[in-house]
Amino acid sequence: MVLTYDVELPEESELTVQEIELSTPALRAGSFHLGKYCENANNEFMLCRLEEKDPRKCISEGKAVTACTLEFFQKVKKTCLAEFNQYAHCIDKSSGDMGLQHCRTTQGVFDGCMLEKLNLERPPFGYFCEARVHATTRPKPPVEPKAVYPDATPALPDDYEKKPARFGSRFYWMTE
């Protein structure tokens, strides 16, 4: 990536947050409930990234997503740790690709615990594919005007002579 001197990068202290130190099976085990729990923070971050087109402007939204994720896993640890560990262990050991299909029994136990103790229901199939409107308090960035270049190459005139292709048309089946 090429940078110039006028590009301002954030300080390292702005970027430093507490990391979520979990394995892939643990993240897969909690992914559906995590997505539902942190839906608002995730949507705000993704909307910022889409609108701003500059990751430096969305650092605070990214920190909010990380904080929400950390809060979620701390709550899971306090309330449903045994069920969560059993489900994550099943995902890790039951197949080579960490598929969820072999662990439906332990998933049901974990889902029941999450519903009972955290009042967090597992979202239905296809929930995260549905279109939603996200309301935000962040102001929409101004629309950049279309760039106009004064030295652009002018177009060919309408009466310009167009010679036939040297070796014929590629679309020979359309000429008849």
From TrEMBL:
Keyword entries, A-Z: Disulfide bond, Electron transport, Membrane, Mitochondrion, Mitochondrion inner membrane, Repeat, Respiratory chain, Transport
Location relative to the cell: Mitochondrion inner membrane
Any one GO cellular component localisation term in the record: mitochondrial inner membrane
InterPro entries according to UniProt: NDUFA8
Key word Cytoplasm present: no
Coiled-coil ranges per UniProt: none
Gene Ontology BP terms: mitochondrial electron transport, NADH to ubiquinone
Family in the record: Belongs to the complex I NDUFA8 subunit family.
Biological role stated in the UniProt entry: Accessory subunit of the mitochondrial membrane respiratory chain NADH dehydrogenase (Complex I), that is believed not to be involved in catalysis. Complex I functions in the transfer of electrons from NADH to the respiratory chain. The immediate electron acceptor for the enzyme is believed to be ubiquinone.
PANTHER family according to UniProt: NADH DEHYDROGENASE [UBIQUINONE] 1 ALPHA SUBCOMPLEX SUBUNIT 8, NADH-UBIQUINONE OXIDOREDUCTASE
Protein name: NADH dehydrogenase [ubiquinone] 1 alpha subcomplex subunit 8
Source species: Leptidea sinapis
